[in-house]
Write a structure and sequence with these properties.
Helices cover about 35% and strands about 45% of the residues. The protein has two helices and four strands; from the N terminus they run E-E-H-H-E-E. The longest helix has 25 residues. The chain is elongated, with a radius of gyration of 17 Å. About 5% of the residues have low confidence.
């Protein structure tokens, strides 16, 4: 499955627009990650614990979106938009959406 943030694919033509597809993930960071992240905030630097949680949430949301696109019969998703949101302390939400399409090589 081709997945891109652009609205077209070089070397491909879009044969059919199948509709909007999306994936959502809400993930919580545990107390130990919160504790070590707060230490990192005090002394400076990156919080690898939270970065890992964000990567996992993004991967889950993307997989959910791709699964929905396959059910539509798509072979590509264009115009991908990723959004990250803090719902509350320790709860992160990642949403991703795009347009499922059928493409063919030019």
């Amino acid at each position: 499955m081709i997945v891109t943030t652009t609205n077209n694919l070089e070397g491909y033509q879009i044969d059919q627009y199948l509709g909007i597809v999306s994936g959502e993930t809400i993930i919580g960071a545990n107390i130990f990650k919160d504790f070590f992240a707060s230490i990192t905030d005090i002394v400076g630097g990156r919080s690898s614990a939270y970065e890992q949680v964000l990567r996992e949430a993004k991967a889950t949301a993307m997989a959910e979106m791709e699964m929905q696109a396959r059910q539509f019969g798509a072979n590509a998703i264009i115009g991908i938009d990723l959004d990250y949101e803090t719902i509350r302390e320790g709860m992160l939400m990642v949403t991703v959406s795009g347009t499922a399409v059928k493409t063919s090589k030019i």
